[in-house]
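**Discrete fold encoding**
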Amino acid sequence: MGFSGGAAFAGGLLLSDPQRFAGGAILYGTLPFDAGVPLSAARLARVPVFVAQGEQDRVIPADLLLRTWNYLLTESAAPAYARRDPGGHGITGETLDELGGWIRERLAFLARPRANGGSDVKAGWTGLREDGLPLRAGHRPQVSWTIPQEQRSDNAPRELQEKLLSRISTLAGVSTRQSAISVPGATGLMLGPAPAATSDGFLVPSVGEFAHQHPAHDGSLHVALPPVLAAEAVAKGWAVAHPLAGVRLASGMVLVYGPRDDSELETVAAIVQTSHNYATLQV
């Protein structure tokens, strides 16, 4: 972790060799965009990152702060827990308290037992053509950086949301009811967990919830995927990592954007089907 100029140093280490680290904190500073470190899509998949910035920071150029924020919270595929403080270029007590809690939760997550290796399950997409997951066309929708995480622009038409829910609720063994973890009106997709299932295949293992669809004003979904596929879904524009994936929640938890047309509905349905198979260890 690093503050101000140290944030660039910490970010450079993280981007140079993400596999070395269990997480990173980029505090009131910028990533070293001109230092030659890799900045490819999904570069920081499976590496939780804590990001803090001051809204009135006049020390770090605003364009670099925004570029750092946007990369870490979307394209990097890092589960990025972010906060913006009303002050300037200085660490607040609230930020330090929250950072300490975040570190404790990340370490506790890493200490959890994994059934059958959990995240290391061999993974492949279900229900897609042989060429795999396509690129999603157009710009990414706006997604909240606060929790609850929600899609705020380019939302799926209501009729496509209903069509998708009708489709995914017929997956084998699935029942639907109010999500155990999401906002009121979110529809949870529940399974009776298989004896050998990995807890990382569920959003809420205790009730078998592996995915949920958000209410109509949003229309996106949260699903648990094998981490390698979660990274691909982010890299190809279909999803963004959940801020607490690998900290408090499944390491492959992503928000999948709601479908805008029938073709996208087919892809999103296949992503949910893959999540269903992961929960039952059929991937």
